[in-house]
Design goal:
The complex is a heterodimer of chains A (152) and B (293). Chain A is of the alpha+beta class and 152 residues long. Chain A contains 5 helices and 5 strands, in the order H-E-E-H-H-H-H-E-E-E. Chain A is globular, with a radius of gyration of 15 Å. In chain B, 18% of the residues lie in helices and 24% in strands. In chain B, strand 5, helix 3 and strand 6 form a beta-alpha-beta unit. The chains are: A alpha+beta (152), B alpha/beta (293). At the A-B interface, helix 1 of A face loops of B.
């Protein structure tokens, strides 16, 4: 339909525009379709400046970065793998924040599945909180299908 | 293509002396195609009078439901052709993961809300969830698209030749984002309504009333006009009048609409408030969009 976004993506973008938690809206093939003002503050760039970005563009600019400080290819990000499998994901990532410094954040990725199948995902970012003293042995952060990620 | 409004009221029927001119019946619009066949857009209480006026014909009657809120289906139980054994009625509507269209409508046409069950209707009634892509009904090409309202809701575009009607009676495209600042592809219903010969669109609230009804699924006048301007429709019919809006109020509202429309660069003759029994012949496009700014 000539590029018209599915309603669920339109509504997701409207939701993200209205919340104060940093968030991305990622579409098919990993295109970064939108990020909100809170994410702009976190990244030091406004969506109006960048416009939509391909997966390769945004991962090389914002991360996530691996232990070697190199961007993790989009297809290898654990959240990507989970969302492609229609599962949510929560874990820690290292990103390039405002000012160019690498910084750890926690991220939750939630797949968006409409009447015609998957249309993307919402990724919400949270500060990393050290709750190691509250965690019980065996606790782990998960993707819902049981794949264990790094505990936050 | 000819259009007749049988109900333009939103939410609940609003009969009474103060709504005589614009009408108190809920959503129903009749489209008569060039080959004489009939499409009915929504089955609010307006469909009762339409049913009484429809001649007995052998061809199927197609009813296109935008959604299943009561003000869009309440008239089904009182649609005279549904009680004639020779009638064939095809009801189109939105799919839902929860239940079939037939089962969802049967919740209304069944005890204790109704004295008959769907299976007891003497006519040949069938239910079809709309296609994800375009389909044909007689000479018309139909397109349905999910739009922003509460629950699964469709807008429709009906095209014959170069003429098109877009019907989005319940729509809140500006929810959570200012319409004027969004790119076209991020506006709910945009592709459906783009360059239509006529757009029939929700305009339930004044801008002031909207502040108390954010998220209820309906448009304030500013958003309805902005949407129409963005999609470059030829003619705009404002629809789904709030049940609290009397004829006198709507007359006064119409003046404000005209002023606002003119500010957006539109021409007076191309926007009007829907009135029950109003008939409009939809002609070939003039190629000059309503918005000239």
């Amino acid at each position: 339909m000539n590029g018209q976004k599915p309603l669920e993506l339109i509504l997701a973008r409207n939701l993200l525009s209205s919340i104060s938690t940093p968030a991305f809206l990622v579409g098919e093939q990993g295109t970064l379709l939108f990020f909100n003002e809170a994410a702009a503050a976190m990244l030091g760039k406004r969506f109006e400046e960048t416009g939509k970005l391909s997966a390769q563009e945004w991962t090389s600019e914002f991360g996530p970065f691996g232990p070697d400080e190199e961007p993790i290819p989009y297809d290898e990000i654990p959240a990507t793998l989970a969302v492609r499998d229609s599962r949510p994901f929560h874990g820690n990532f290292r990103i390039c924040a405002a000012g160019g410094e690498h910084q750890d954040v926690a991220a939750s990725a939630i797949p968006i599945v409409g009447p015609e199948g998957s249309s993307g995902a919402i990724v919400i970012f949270w500060p990393v909180i050290d709750d190691s003293d509250r965690r019980q042995p065996g606790d782990a952060v998960m993707s819902a299908g049981g794949e264990r990620g790094e505990a936050t | 293509m000819k259009l007749k409004v049988w109900g333009a009221r939103g939410s609940i029927p609003a009969p009474g002396p103060e709504t005589m001119r614009y009408g108190g019946n809920t959503s129903c619009v009749e489209l008569t195609l060039d080959d004489g066949s009939t499409l009915i857009l929504d089955a609010g209480t307006g469909i009762r009078n339409l049913g009484l006026a429809l001649p007995r014909v052998e061809r199927p009657i197609h009813i296109l439901l935008t959604h299943l809120h009561l003000d869009h289906i309440q008239g089904l139980m009182f649609f005279a052709p549904a009680f004639r054994p020779e009638s064939e009625i095809i009801i189109w509507g939105p799919a839902s993961p929860e239940a079939s269209l037939r089962d969802r409508i049967a919740r209304y046409i069944s005890a204790p809300l109704a004295p008959v069950e769907v299976r007891e209707l003497p006519s040949h009634v069938s239910f079809r969830e709309t296609e994800p892509h375009e389909w044909d009904i007689g000479p018309a090409r139909i397109r349905a698209q999910a739009v922003n309202h509460r629950g699964p809701t469709l807008g429709y575009r009906i095209e014959t030749g170069d003429t098109s009607v877009c019907y989005i009676p319940d729509h809140e495209p500006g929810l959570g984002a200012p319409l004027a600042q969004l790119d076209d592809d991020w506006i709910s219903g945009f592709e459906l309504a783009r360059d239509s010969s006529m757009l029939i669109h929700d305009c339930q609230y004044t801008d002031e009333e909207y502040q108390e009804h954010l998220g209820w699924g309906h448009s304030p006048v500013s958003d309805a006009l902005c949407f129409a301007q963005r999609v470059q429709t030829e003619k705009l019919l404002l629809f789904h009048h709030d049940p609290l809006h009397s004829d006198d109020f709507l007359d006064s509202f119409c003046g404000r609409v005209s002023t606002r429309w003119a500010e957006l660069g539109g021409r007076d003759a191309q926007v009007e408030l829907a009135t029950e029994r109003r008939e409009i012949v939809i002609s070939e496009p003039t190629r000059e969009p309503a918005h000239t700014a």
